[in-house]
Amino acid sequence: MNFTSSEAPSSKCSVCVLGQFCLPVGLNTVDVAKIDTLVKERVRLQKGENLYRHGDPLSSVYSVRFGTLKTEYGLEDGRQQVIGFHLPGEILGLDGIGDGQYQSDAIALEESEVCIIRYDAFEDLARQIPVLQHQFHRILSRELTQDQRHLLSLGTMRAEERLASFLLNLSQRLAARGYLNNEFDLRMSRVEIGSYLGIQIETVSRMLSRFAESGLIQIKQRHIKLIDMDGLYELAGIPNPERTRCIKK
Amino acid sequence: MNFTSSEAPSSKCSVCVLGQFCLPVGLNTVDVAKIDTLVKERVRLQKGENLYRHGDPLSSVYSVRFGTLKTEYGLEDGRQQVIGFHLPGEILGLDGIGDGQYQSDAIALEESEVCIIRYDAFEDLARQIPVLQHQFHRILSRELTQDQRHLLSLGTMRAEERLASFLLNLSQRLAARGYLNNEFDLRMSRVEIGSYLGIQIETVSRMLSRFAESGLIQIKQRHIKLIDMDGLYELAGIPNPERTRCIKK
DNA sequence: CGCTTTATTGAGAGATATCAATACTTGTGG
DNA sequence: CCACAAGTATTGATATCTCTCAATAAAGCG
Q1: How wide is the angle at C-alpha A141 spanned by C-alphas A140 and A147, nearest 5°?
Q2: CB-based contact B144:A140 (threshold 8 Å)
Q3: Is the pLDDT of residue A4 over 90?
Q4: Among all strands, which nt has the closest C1' to B208 (CA)?
Q5: B9, B94, B164, B204: which has the fewest C-beta neighbours closer than 10 Å?
Q6: Are A237 and B79 an interchain contact pair (Cβ–Cβ within 8 Å)?
Q7: What is residue B249's three-state secondary structure?
């Protein structure tokens, strides 16, 4: 891990473009300044590098600045599964709070940068800034909801449906960040997608090919174009949130 | 729902036998007294009654006093899944914090009683009592870890393994509360077990019969006796935490 | 340019779902 | 207290989906 101190002007939360997705949502300037004092360091990770490992003592939680990470959770017998993919603005490391050590491995899928939020200092600050405290609880709670949706996917959906709803979920999160929502690069391998969805890599591949044949998507390697959003939503069994408009970058 | 005000002496957190599993873990007497002022009401639920429904505005989170509840999460197309079973001392309603309304349905599996914790008042109190704040974060974080384990089960395990680890998880949670860990009543139906594990009711039934044939368990209706714990642990792919001793009530 | 990794595609095997029939429980009312 | 009905659970036979094994193709990397 390369620790870089924060010289660059854009290193402060107060001027970070991610403000709207990151912790400081809805805080006033004074409070954000206080958070600035909290987030003093960042880490730059190369593809494949660990941000933390299962068992590491919890010192911080992290906010993705750019790039993509995955978190994996392992069983004692060696089996493990990708539990989540993390885009800019999303928080990592929350599963370490319960027992003071991270329960998962966090690994960069591409060159990424992550803000370091000292956890003990953060708890102190949250007591001083009620909005921050509430915001943090919301983040934790939404994380739960996200996992529950994931559970529903693994528990009730067939491979095809899982994959469709995975693609749509990615699309929605990208759209929220102002990226194209109908054309993007998958940062994760087929193996990682399969692991996340509880299906084998071959099945992922087959389903993607099938989607392409039916004209739902175009896919070339990891570059994907969602052609028929409505069709995908129908497949996934979730209603299309108001006839998706394509958000231009 | 029958709201009952708290006349009974045992209604206070300070004297509740669940103290060791409930929110007030590790608090001093003064602080617990403050929590007493927070938890003024309880609800008694009959089997099948809802504690809350998806979409209800979040007003409170809940702690199970006695009984068992399930939470279910639904897809727009009608499919739904049991996401969790909740034993005494466990907290419910946390998924409502994210957007101010519960994301799941909570339903009693038997006659149950639940403590009502006003959420806004709780956040205020958490700011005054750092230990309480931290404890709450730990609870939220552990909830995440629990869901991640569940994800791992649905994503990587076969039906047999899922069922074995489900039984062992129940056993462990009962043991922690001082109940017999090798003989207990399942409060949930086969349908609910299947939904929770992402398998069909018939498969649950078959696997239970298979376990019984192999001498791993004895089962009569919903009463189950775990005979060969080691065997179950091996099946589940998780190591037996120190040659399980049977905890007598 | 060759080697390694990653992805696609096919054929057959296996696990679980589905459909269907039967048995067991529980509750209700005569 | 028994009979009946409704709900719940078990068991069997077949269908279906996904996995596994295997071969090939494409892409990334030194």
Answers
A1: 95
A2: yes
A3: no
A4: D10
A5: B9
A6: yes
A7: coil
- Pull the structure tokens for residue B123: 């956040």
| Nucleotide whose C1' lies closest to the alpha carbon of residue A157 | D17
Residues B30, B103: Cα–Cα separation, whole Å: 34
Supply φ then ψ for residue B23, to 5 degrees.
-50, -45
> Alpha-carbon distance A70 to A159, whole Å?
21
CB-CB neighbors (< 8 A) of A99 in chain B: 138, 142, 145
- Tell which CATH classification among 1.10.10.10, 1.10.600.10, 3.90.1150.10, 3.30.200.20 matches the domain B157-248: 1.10.10.10
pLDDT tens sequence across A151-186: 999 999 999 999 999 999 999 999 999 899 999 999
Per residue in B77-101, pLDDT (tens digit) is: 888 999 999 999 999 999 999 999 9
**What is the fold, at CATH topology level, of the domain defined by A2-133?**
Jelly Rolls (2.60.120)
| pLDDT value for A245 | 53
Write down the mean pLDDT value for chain B. Answer: 90
The two tokens of residue A69 are 């990470």
Q: Chain A residue closest to B237 (CA)?
A: A77
Domain boundaries, chain A: 2-133, 157-248
Q: What is the pLDDT of residues A59-108, one digit of tens each?
A: 999 999 999 999 999 988 888 999 999 999 999 999 999 999 999 999 99
Dist. CA B67–CA B51, nearest whole Å: 13
| pTM greater than 0.85 (yes/no) | yes
